[in-house]
Amino acid sequence: MALLSARSLNSFLQVFGILVFVTTIVCIYFVYISDITIPKHFIVRDTSTSIHENGQRRKILLAFYYWEQFTMATNNFLQLTALAAYGGRQVVVPFVKNSHFSGVNIMNGYEPLDRYYNVTELSNLLRLHGYATLIDWEQFKNVCKGKLDILVHFDYEGNKKHWNTSFAAPYSPCKHRNHRNGSLKKRNYGFDIVHQICVDASFLTSVEKFEEEVLDGLPCVGIWEWRGASTRSPYRTKFDLSSMVRSELSYRNVSLFLSSKLLRIAAHFIKNAIGAEFIALHIRSEHMLKAGKDIATVKKCLLNLTSRVKAICKQKNVLHFRVFLATDFNKFGSSSKMVQQARKHAQSLMETMVFLGPVTFKPEHYRLTDNGEVAITEMTILTSGKYLIVMGGGSFQNWVVAQFHSKKNGNYVERLAC
Predict the structure, then answer these.
(1) Helices 371-382 and 260-269 meet at what angle, rounded to 10?
(2) CA 340 to CA 301: how far, in whole Å?
């Protein structure tokens, strides 16, 4: 009996061992086969890694500088996401300060884009229109592992002084370059740059050629200074971005996504400082001065503006409208060198409009210190007036007028010539 039990136990152990061995082999086989045959887009991955959910490595496009101020910098940012869409790239969310945009997080005082915009809603808008998606700074660093494969320098003037060759090709390796912020190699951006390519902005017009020949499909790519795309401007790239997206966006399309904090500040100011019924005035002295006018002529223009406001009051049989005034020559106005002349004469310029008793926005009352935040707040106030009168022109002013029309269904707007 004991012998039978021992034999039975021994047989059981042998069968059990065989089953364990076979089961192990089968499991290893299916794991191996499944790794080969399961489509990559079914694999769940951490989106903070360098791999997309479809199994492909993320490709990134980073712009160091966006060249212009708030309105056109926004346009340039939107156009960069259109450019990136062709190559399936993501764009690094820029940082902002005083109406300027920068893609690198080493600039003193620069803060994330949500200082100006609701980035989540803006991202949804981009996705809806077929633009590239966004990636934040930390994710970019995780994907690119401390290096940029290529840094592109667009030659907007066509002088080719930094090119390694004198050939007529639209792109070439760059010579060692010094920039406005010092030597690129000496500046600590937190990553290495493997190659630098100089591109003739006027003659490389194909997005496909740019992605496939210049960038060569490499994952981590930067652009030193991005000025957007336009066939009309000599100082921008000539890419046709309309075919890259389902429908084109501009700064006018992102008005709904301005910072809710700044919109609340504007509403508080209107309620407590001027009330609902007011005439809104915007003066862009920079463009008057660019047109060759001197300060004396600008003063005459402002006197004409004063007369026009009085005429409106008389026409509407209103003794006196409250007037809100925003200008580019105040402390928080444009950073353009051209406006400095008007800023030096700011007091005398304001005196020409003293009879209007204009109310101006005081950023310090709301602890705002950034030019871009002030611009958004003033734009929101301007577009809330009963009447809007503008003088001087420019993209910011065009944005104000477009928003006023959308809010007021075409109510009174007047552009005064100077």
Answers:
(1) 50
(2) 18
